[in-house]
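Running this now, will post back.
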Amino acid sequence: MSPISGFPEWLPEQRIVELKWMDDIRRVFESYGYCSIETPSVEEIEALLAKGETDKEIYTVQRLHRDDEAGEPRLGLHYDLTVPLARYVAEHFHDLVFPFKRYQVQRAWRGERPQEGRYREFYQCDIDVINLDQLPLHFDAEIPAIMYDILSRLEVGDFQIRVSNRKILEGYFRGLGIEDTISAIRLVDKLDKIGEDGVLSSLQSDLALPREVALRCLALATIRTTDLSFAERVRALGVEHSSSMHSTRCRKGRCWPTCQLPVASTTTREPSMRPRYSNFLLLEVSVRVGAMTISRVLSSSASSQEWGYLSV
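Update: finished.
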């Protein structure tokens, strides 16, 4: 009998290592003052879909002997821990103390093609900081520091911590006259997977961008620096956008694991009984361990009432 693809199953000696790693991660989280919560494995489909185009990744849940008139499934397995957190905070808003620093170590499920480093069932070790109105700036530095602390303790070998800010892409693309900036960002995000030629071709075929505009998109996406010189290189591209929310003058950087990070923008999220997600993802940290890159969006922006939010 062959194993089910994408659903790992460890031998006892491997499971011992996994448990030790999770214990070490929990100890680091708690040493920084994060408390543990646990949420159900299922969420409302409507809430899961609110984050974006994820319908192909969601495993739905139905009873085998359900009523024939039950219609479409109402529940699905969560594909990350962000949607459950948004619902949890909205439902327990008046019972929580802010800033609310929480961590979760739970399984998540994604119906995507299994490959190296990607499974259909996996554990996610997630931390978030949520505050009312505005999040203190020091949390922007604390999150990468925690990542560095954990990876150092796990002794995974050499690694990089890469910091980027998607507000830059949003403002830059608007400055180029691109209307569908979200699709453009998604295509540029595939740079490591399909290469420059693949991204260039997709920008022209999928978004009908002129080759010159597509090349200018790549000019920003391919900038890599280890210091704050990134800002000067972005300005040298000569693209401006007047909106303060989408300015190309936001900072972005990449660093080796010395945690000498540029200060990034604080973030906002809107509390509601049903989580709502912005199109503008502001800060992303990715950790490169060997040949594998682990990415995590750290923040997002929403309009209306502000809710400070930062996660890893």
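The longest strand covers residues 121-132. More later if anyone needs it.
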